[in-house]
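Review box. Two proteins, two foldings.
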Amino acid sequence: MDAMFVIANGEQVAARVPATLEEFLVAHGLLPRSVVVEHNGQAVAPSEFAARRVAAGDRLEIAMITAGG
């Protein structure tokens, strides 16, 4: 894996890619089950995080899941 960049929530972020989406999230301090992710414009089910590959230049939109009333 090489240090490259992906675009996460509109900002360039250094990342060790290629990696799985799950590896990317954990490396950036995010719990995979606490977020929803769009990868290159496509919604990704949490069950796909371990198989979905992230490469340099990919675009991610990551939102935290919150509970409340």
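Next protein.
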Amino acid sequence: MQKTRMLMNRIYPYLVSVGFVLIMTLLGEFVKRKLEPTNIVMFYLLAVVIVAIRWGQGPAIITSVLSVLAFDFFLVPPYLTFNVHDFEYLFTFGAFLAVGLIVSTLASKVRAQIIQRQTEKLHSALLNSISHDLKTPLVSITGALSALLGSTSKLNEQQKNDLLETARDESERLNRIVNNILDMTRTESGVLRISKKPCDLRDFIGACLEQLKDKMGSRNIKINIPKQMPEVSVDFPYMLKAFLNVIDNALKYSSDGSAIEIGAFCIGNKVRVSVHDYGYGIPKEDLGRIFNKFYRVQRAQNVPGTGLGLSISKNIIEAHGGYIRAESIPGKATTFIIELPLE
């Protein structure tokens, strides 16, 4: 599925080029009895500029070549043939092709410069975000260990244990951040290799909750998964990460003592899993962006995180042929819905 999506992403700009040429040809057909053919050339040049700015030089060159051919075949007499009786049109074709190539080159250079500037700004923002997230636990670890090393006999056993626990907790947090960055790199670079095996969904959810038990506090975890639920074919370690991130998100953005509901049922040849919390909710304007990497909803509650977890989950779930989405009532509840194919 990933290979098909990548292939379509490569082909799409060229299909758009063909579409633009067809549209401009239809426009030319409507006005060819009112305008000189050489004036209709401007329609095609407009298409070349649009394609060059939006999709780059390759598709723009294809647009230029197809435009010359379509212009000759449909809009220059004799129609529906590539024969040209007027030498003037041959010069027009040559000039149009040359101008089209020059325009496409210039427009694509402008596009490349714009993209480069945007990329530089994005990289700067991402580096600032990552460096801040890495620096925070490192400062805490360094502070705790420095206090221990310089304390000699000034600290009692309880204070020493507290500092050691702080260093341990922040080390685990740092390890999660690094693992998230590595997982994000794998899922986006195409290195992710899915090896599916049948898995009992109840056991799978149980394994997730076991790993998150230290974060549950006094929350009431309700599981509603039928015993006769068919097995789901997944890559267990990767899908475990995906569900851990989703359930962990529900824990982080809901108050201690509230309920977390995890349910599942079959729809045709798919299984739908829902993770519902009664927490802070997600503003409507943020729902479409929460799966973007490094995106975090601006909240009054200061919840630590890198903004990578949900993006990693989305990539893993889609690599399994499934999808994930979120529904939310701001300030009341959020539901993450995951669908996976039954094989």
